[in-house]
Amino acid sequence: MAIETLRAVRGMNDILPAEIGLWQRFEAVIRDWLASYGYQEMRTPILEQTGLFKRAIGEVTDIVEKEMYTFVDELNGESFTLRPEGTASCVRAAVEHNLLFNGGKRLWYSGPMFRHERPQKGRYRQFHQIGVEGLGFAGPDIDIEHLSMTARLWRMLGLAAVVTLEINTLGGAESRARHRQKLIDYFEAHQDQLDEDARRRLHTNPLRILDTKNPAMQGLVEAAPKLIAELDETALAHFDSVRRGLDAAGIAYRINARLVRGLDYYNYTVFEWVTDRLGAQGTVCAGGRYDGLVAQLGGKPAPACGFAMGVERLLALLTEMTAAPPATGPDVYVVNVGESAARFAVPVAETLRDAGLKAVLHCGGGSFKAQMKKADASGARYAVIIGDDEAAAGEASVKPLRVEGEQRRVALAALDKIIFQ
Ligand code: ATP
Ligand code: MG
After folding, report:
1. Domain encompassing residue 414
2. Same structural domain for residues 309 and 378?
3. What is the pLDDT at residue 139?
4. Tens-digit pLDDT profile for residues 34-53
5. How remote is the CA of residue 18 from the centroid of ligand 2, in Å?
6. Residue 278 lies in a domain
7. What is the DSSP letter of 166?
8. Considering the domain boundaries, does residue 219 fall inside one?
9. Do 276 and 390 share a domain, yes or no?
10. pTM recorded for the entire structure
């Protein structure tokens, strides 16, 4: 009877050895970049109480309404959710551990996020984000820092030419309330043009209607009352400072009055970096201010600003933009033929690693010819060859694999010198 083949969960990807180099190089750039701005890494659990996301992201949002992986722990009846994003957890942890006791904190995190969406290019059910949060900063200097640091990252990655910045301001609570009422009046007057989602949201979260992806509603949404008309002086001054900061830093941007973001915690500045190279899933980085969230999650009120990047989308963009990097092999492949050679090969490989070389030790025996084939396929620069002869003499033979060169027999102590040449 055939055994059923098991597959990964739909929309959740394996990252295989052939792809991992790209991830690791990207992550190395990210670490340097964040360190150069003084951000500290933090790691939170992948599972949180469901209530955290409901409270932080908002009940009437796509994420909370239909994208969360939520289950009841049968052992104690608690409801848990696989994190759909990182800001809620980061703020929860900052409040829980009183991280803001002596002022602002610059934090970052990375890792998998989970959303039950329809899988397609650039949209997965497990995807990865790098998130950056400045907690306890009223801005607009921190807003400008976040925008300039993302601009620097695109330069570091060679992506500056293919991403553009869109910004908007959502204002504070009062202007949002005024705008909300105007939106309700406007959409009520055009009930017949609303789709099911929009009708449901009309009285719970009319702002969300502006974020619709339904092409049939674009005209209606385009003509809807603009929040910018409701902004008070403080909000306008904040936005103005952000704009002047961008101008001073030489960062081009477009004001997109329809940019509202899919999470309820945002206020004041919001932004997205978008590309036209990835089809419909063109937002590679998104964020903004969320001044109410810390208090909303039980902390002493503290303003904040942050953003998150979609790693899969950025890697797709990098792959599209750059030639495939050369495959990297180890420095040395240690061939060993014969019983005493196999025993002696173990300390030889260790000696090579002591010297800082990457050494792969051949396992599984086989003829000299078969092992040399493996050595070649591994991409190693050198084969270190050990037969019973070499083992008896406490020596090894070295042969370059990528350039012409003789096989040479040398004492162990001389091995690394040859290879480091
Ligand atoms: P979108 O409008 O594309 O659904 P979003 O507004 O839901 O994005 P955020 O919650 O702001 O996204 O997440 C920040 C970034 O994470 C996005 O800009 C995107 O790059 C990435 N991202 C979000 N959802 C997914 C997903 N399902 N698969 C892959 N990347 C994602
Ligand atoms: Mg989404």
Report:
1. 332-419
2. no
3. 86
4. 999 999 999 999 999 999 99
5. 28
6. yes
7. E
8. no
9. no
10. 0.89
Question: Are residues 259 and 347 located together in one domain of the fold?
Answer: no
Per-residue pLDDT tens over the stretch 290-306 = 999 999 999 999 999 99
Three-class DSSP category at 351: helix
**In this predicted model, what pLDDT tens digit does every residue of 328-371 receive, in sequence order?**
789 999 999 999 999 999 999 999 999 999 999 999 999 999 99
Q: From the alpha carbon of 67, which atom of ligand 1 is closest?
A: 27
Among 321, 348, 373, residue at a domain's last position: 321
**237 pLDDT band (50/70/90 cuts)?**
very high
Q: Is 384 in the pocket of ligand 1 (CB under 6 A)?
A: no
**Pocket lining: 281 vs ligand 1, CB cutoff 6 Å:** yes
Ligand in nearest proximity to the CA of 163 = 1
Name the E strands within 20-88. Answer: 40-41, 47-49, 70-72, 79-82
Residue 412 predicted with pLDDT over 80:
yes
Tokens (6 digits) for 358: 């990457």
CATH number of the CATH domain containing 374:
3.40.50.800
In a domain, 199, yes or no: no
Beta sheet of 395-400, edge-to-edge order: 359-361, 332-337, 382-387, 395-400, 408-411
Pair (292, 168) in one structural domain: yes
Q: Tokens 């936005």 — which residue? A: 239
Q: How many domains does the chain have?
A: 2
Q: For residue 279, is it within any domain?
A: yes
Rounded Cα distance, 117 and 114, in Å: 9
Buried b (16+ CB within 10 A) or exposed e, 290-325: bbbbbebbebeebbbbbbbbbbbbbbbbeeeeeeee
Which mutation among 127, 165, 271, 284 tests ligand 1's pocket best, with the greatest number of atoms within 8 A of CB?
Answer: 127
- Nearest ligand, CA of residue 270? 1
Q: Do 277 and 381 sit in the same domain of this protein?
A: no
